[in-house]
Design a protein that fits this description.
Blueprint: H1 19-32, H2 43-50, H3 54-66, E1 70-73, E2 78-81, H4 84-95, H5 97-113, E3 116-123, E4 126-133, H6 139-142, E5 149-151, H7 156-164, H8 167-181, H9 185-202, E6 205-210, E7 213-222, E8 225-234, H10 239-263
Antiparallel strand pairs: 1-2, 3-4, 3-8, 4-5, 6-7, 7-8
């Protein structure tokens, strides 16, 4: 399910930032260049993925090595992410009140209905899994893990997010998808519009972007941030048939998580 890197539609613009902030932004872009299947990247590959000058990359990769966030493979003359980067992900997961509230109920639904259950959030033009509880028989589906990205415009996760995204953000993403997809965009845009209508009217939408895999997804807005819960399974049934069977279960899951979050005391600053 890994997808090839592509241009990002919401690249942060450096205009008006101080030189220090621009350096931080560029350093983050270098770290973002590393994706599954890209264990080692040389300066040229990083330049291609980020659009940064090689001289800038050479300077910043040295800084990131010094900070312990990149490792230099001298033999390959390339870089890999260093182990401390993983601690950031662990800190995020352990500190997420949404994940803490959702995970037990996701697991219960997965075991009760023998389906896959996921929780994801948007990142640029992709959706990133925060949690993925797999009950699938197909190996490809069992390998979906926390931190994995899926295309926003093709998946139920992404389409549920687009349905409730701020209008300006939604418009920006749709324009980027139209440029990226071109030939398929007419059909995809209709599916996205249907998904938006379904979310507004039913509370969830469906998609089948992989053969014989159907997924339903519903947005969960928490403190202005949008998360998405989904259920998926391997089946030859239609999206409509799966929705009859699992749509209400997904909506109950969203409602339960929302109530769990409402019980939590706001954190005092």
């Amino acid at each position: 399910m890994t997808t090839a890197p592509r241009s990002e539609p919401n690249r942060i613009r450096a205009t008006g930032l101080s030189p220090a902030n621009r350096s931080l932004e560029r350093g983050v872009e270098i770290l973002r260049a590393f994706r599954p299947g890209s264990e080692l990247l040389g300066n040229g590959e990083i330049a291609e993925r980020t659009g940064l000058a090689k001289s800038t990359i050479s300077r910043l990769t040295q800084t990131l090595v010094g900070c312990g966030l990149l490792q230099l493979d001298a033999g390959e003359r390339a870089y890999r992410l260093a182990p401390p980067v993983l601690s950031f992900a662990h800190a995020m997961r352990s500190g997420s009140r949404v994940l803490a509230a959702a995970a037990p109920h996701m697991r219960a639904l997965s075991e009760r209905r023998r389906v896959n259950v996921g929780l994801a959030a948007p990142d640029r033009d992709s959706m990133v899994y925060l949690e993925s509880i797999r009950y699938a028989r197909r190996v490809a589906l069992r390998e979906v893990v926390s931190g994995q990205r899926v295309p926003m415009e093709l998946t139920s996760l992404g389409r549920a997010y687009l349905a409730v995204a701020q209008p300006a953000r939604r418009r920006e993403l749709l324009e980027a998808f139209a440029r990226h997809r071109k030939k398929q965009w007419a059909a995809i845009s209709l599916e996205i519009e249907k998904a938006r209508s379904d979310v507004l009217n039913l509370g969830y939408c469906g998609a089948a972007w992989q053969p014989e895999v159907v997924a339903l997804a519903a947005p969960l807005v928490v403190d202005g941030a949008v998360y998405v819960l989904n259920v998926s399974l391997s089946t030859k049934e239609s999206i409509a048939d799966v929705a009859v069977d699992l749509g209400s279960a997904l909506l109950r899951l969203v409602d339960i998580v929302r109530k769990e979050l409402s019980k939590q005391q706001p954190r005092k600053l």
